[in-house]
Design a protein that fits this description.
The protein is of the alpha/beta class. 28% of the residues lie in helices and 27% in strands. Helix 2 packs across helix 3 and helix 3 runs parallel beside helix 4. The chain binds NADPH dihydro-nicotinamide-adenine-dinucleotide phosphate (NDP). NADPH dihydro-nicotinamide-adenine-dinucleotide phosphate binds next to helix 1, helix 2, helix 3 and helix 9.
């Protein structure tokens, strides 16, 4: 038996319960992992609340973890006991130990600690595909990134700066805007006190940006579209304020023949070789110092409910980890 945070039904943070779960020996193709650090991500709140339905309950929460391999199932050749690994999928990371399919784990390089890995695997690989694949960001790019002081946001500001882009970052307070600028945002907007469409127009001399990265959802729709140049790309990749319910495809025409995509990390890392390449590029920018992972909150895993409340009430900045 190990301790884990599980839910028996979806709902509020009070549904997260710390209890004994059976792990057993790893099955075919699986490894058993002892977690040293576990990541908190916004998707955890969607899976807890029911915004994202779960196929099976009860379920151990959490997508992201880092730890050591303590047992290896049959048919696993890539990993051995004692290997330091991390992952951003599948669910089940809010636990002291777990079994998981080996195909989803990557080995940590010496320069990446367990805490850093647990803080960055999901958010950092997300930033990588958003900036390097969904839209190929470079020195010519002007982009708008919402929630720029969050976990994904602070990594995005640094990585986009590393790529030479002009970055407009939004956040919900002046302190958060200052953090985003410190991390690399060229311009900052407090979207609670300023009209971000007007400010983007002003900053870009009326042109608009090439790409908007929007993880807020309903609250910033459709205003985010009004920040784009003709033929610009709207990347809607999250629902922190709730999912967009009234998306008007026809309206994209009048706003300049805009493009829209709703990407997820899981598509971009579905093949093992893509996962490994994505993680390798993340490790490279972190080990070179171009991107620093800001672990701004650490909670004991048993306090997962409080961490969810803090994340959902916009109290956190940067990345958050749990210690099992
Ligand atoms: P964050 O640390 O960014 O936390 C969310 C932030 O969103 C808050 O801090 C807050 O910042 C802002 N926000 C705006 N409106 C609200 C609201 N109504 N309620 C709560 N927060 C709000 O979280 P993550 O870094 O973990 O994730 C960021 C986003 O990226 C999430 O939407 C997540 O789902 C998405 N995501 C998508 C992935 C994908 O592949 N599609 C993968 C990873 C993350 P402020 O106070 O500054 O407004």
């Amino acid at each position: 038996m190990v301790k884990a945070i599980r839910i028996h039904e979806q709902g509020g943070p009070e549904k997260l319960v710390w209890e004994d779960v059976e792990v057993g020996a790893p099955g075919d193709g699986e490894i058993r992992v002892k977690h040293h650090a576990v990541g908190l991500n916004y998707i955890d709140t969607y899976q807890r609340s029911g915004l994202y339905p779960l196929a099976k309950l009860p379920a151990v929460m959490g997508m992201e973890g880092a730890g050591e391999v303590v047992a290896v199932g049959s048919g696993v050749s890539e990993f051995k006991e004692g290997d330091r690994i991390a992952y951003a999928n599948p669910m089940g990371s809010y636990s002291e130990e777990r079994n998981m399919i080996a195909d989803r784990a990557v080995k940590l390089t010496d320069g990446v600690s367990y805490d850093t890995a647990a803080a960055m695997m999901l958010q950092g690989m997300t930033v990588r595909y958003l900036l390097r694949e969904t839209y190929k960001v470079g020195p010519e790019t002007t982009l708008l990134f919402h929630a720029a002081a969050g976990g994904v946001g602070l990594i995005a500001c640094q990585w986009a700066k590393h790529l030479g882009a002009t970055i407009i970052g939004t956040a919900g307070s002046d302190e958060k805007v200052a953090m985003a600028k410190e991390a690399g945002a060229t311009h900052g907007i407090n979207y609670n006190t300023e009209n971000f469409v007007d400010r983007v127009k002003e900053i870009t001399g009326g042109n608009g940006v090439d790409v908007v990265y929007d993880s807020i959802g309903q609250d910033t729709y459709p205003a985010s579209l009004d920040c784009l140049k003709p033929l610009g790309l709207f990347v809607t990749f999250g629902n922190a304020s709730g999912p967009i319910k009234n998306f008007d495809v026809g309206g994209l025409g009048g706003k300049g023949s805009l493009y829209v995509t709703r990407p997820t990390l899981f598509t971009y890392t579905a093949k093992r070789e893509d996962l490994v390449a994505n993680a390798a590029e993340l490790f490279e920018v972190v080990e070179s110092g171009a991107v620093k992972i800001k672990v701004n909150q650490t909670y004991p895993l048993v306090e997962a409910a409080q961490a969810h409340r803090d994340l959902e009430s916009r109290v956190t900045t940067g990345s958050t980890i749990f210690k099992p």
